[in-house]
Amino acid sequence: MPKNLRRRGGVWWYRITKSGQTFEGSLQTGNLGVAKERLEGIRRELTATRYGEKPRRTFDEAALRFKREHFPALKPKSRLRYSVSLRVMVDHFQGVYLDEIGSARMGDFERARLAEGVTTTTVRRDLGCLSSLFSRAEEWEWVTSNPVKPYKRGRAKAGLKEGQARTRYLSEGEESAIEPVCAPKAWDAISFAIDTGLRKEEQFSLELTDLDLEAREITVRAEVAKTGVERKVPLLDRALAIAIKLSADRVGRVPLFVTKDGERYSPNSPTMYEALQKACRRAGVARCSWHDLRRTCGCRLLQAHGMSLQEVSAWLGHGDVRITQQRYAFLRVDQLHRALKRPSNIVYLNPKGQNKGQNES
């Protein structure tokens, strides 16, 4: 083991003395091989700095600083997504200098990922993480440009695009079928999601102090909202009844939805998702993701409650009404198909001057 390394609490730390000055810190890894590589990178940096050179930085160094400085500002779901991407990219870019990561290496990465069976959407998200890392590296003056941005633009034209947006939402009949075969606790969470349209993290971060039962509304705090902007969401009758039931005999900043042990659900907890899937299988209903419940809310606000896109956008907390327009454009096609099935009194003339109904051939 190198004398400059020591293990503390399962994590490797380094200690280097250069020109009478001591440098030490955490290498943020429990893997000895990775720790040695990071130690060597720090040695190169100190040596280059001593002789006035600009050190070349590796992907590993950038990923380490990116996690340390950028992750605290991210929402839990974004941190998880970036963590997954960084773990994948380590297999392809470990030990590679940032200035060596260009279109050729990114092309190799893309082909390798697609060969693993992931979707183009997943590859684009991985590249989005890499692009964010390079943007930070520009700020640190480690690189002079971000090579990922032009690569993504070029590959988008060649077919590396986001997958088809989901349009799945629950019909009222499907909802009625799910309710009797769903655990009561899970059904409270599912029906609350349908009626409020909250994102999963927003819903399970709700605290009793976010409820205003008299005003029939809840507050989605800025630190929880995806957009970072606080908003108020009205409570429909069923959601209000659930909020009243779950908040009974409890006070203070405690979670509205709690586990069987009375604890807050973690952002990555699969408990409610698995309960939803089990209920769908029992009811013979097509698979439904948790986010599909949010889409169900948006569809019903537009169709059953007759809200405008602007109103639904504000309710759901979209950053721009154009996002709402894109997400729910499929409803316009559904409405056109339904309109065609309605009986019509319009009479058309065929080329011979005879009357014919709209639906005649």
Descriptive notes:
It is built from 15 helices and eight strands. It is mainly α and 361 residues long. Strands 1-2-3 form a three-stranded antiparallel β-sheet, with helices on one face. A hairpin with a 5-residue loop joins strand 7 and strand 8 (355-357). Residues 355-361 have low confidence and may be disordered.
Give the number of DSSP strands.
Answer: 8
Structural class call reads: mainly alpha
Mean pLDDT: 86
- How many DSSP helices? 15
What's the story with the biggest beta sheet? 3 strands, antiparallel
**Beta fraction:** 5-15%
Q: Strand order, main sheet: write it out.
A: 1-2-3
Q: What is the gyration radius calculated from CA atoms? A: 27 Å
Distance between the termini: 84 Å
Q: List segments where confidence is low: pLDDT < 50 over at least 5 consecutive residues.
A: 355-361
What fraction, in percent, of the residue positions are helical?
A: 40-55%
Order of helices and strands: EEEHHHHHHHHHEEEHHHHHHEE
Q: What gross morphology would you assign? A: globular
Topology of this structure?
Blueprint (H helix, E strand, L loop, with lengths): L4 E4 L2 E8 L2 E6 L5 H19 L8 H12 L5 H18 L9 H13 L4 H20 L8 H10 L14 H7 L5 H13 L3 H5 L6 E2 L4 E4 L10 E4 L2 H11 L23 H13 L6 H14 L5 H8 L4 H7 L2 H12 L5 E3 L5 E3 L4
Antiparallel strand pairs: 1-2, 2-3, 4-5, 5-6, 7-8
Helix pairs in contact: 2-3, 2-5, 3-5, 8-12, 13-14
Summarize the structure.
By secondary structure, the protein is mainly alpha-helical.
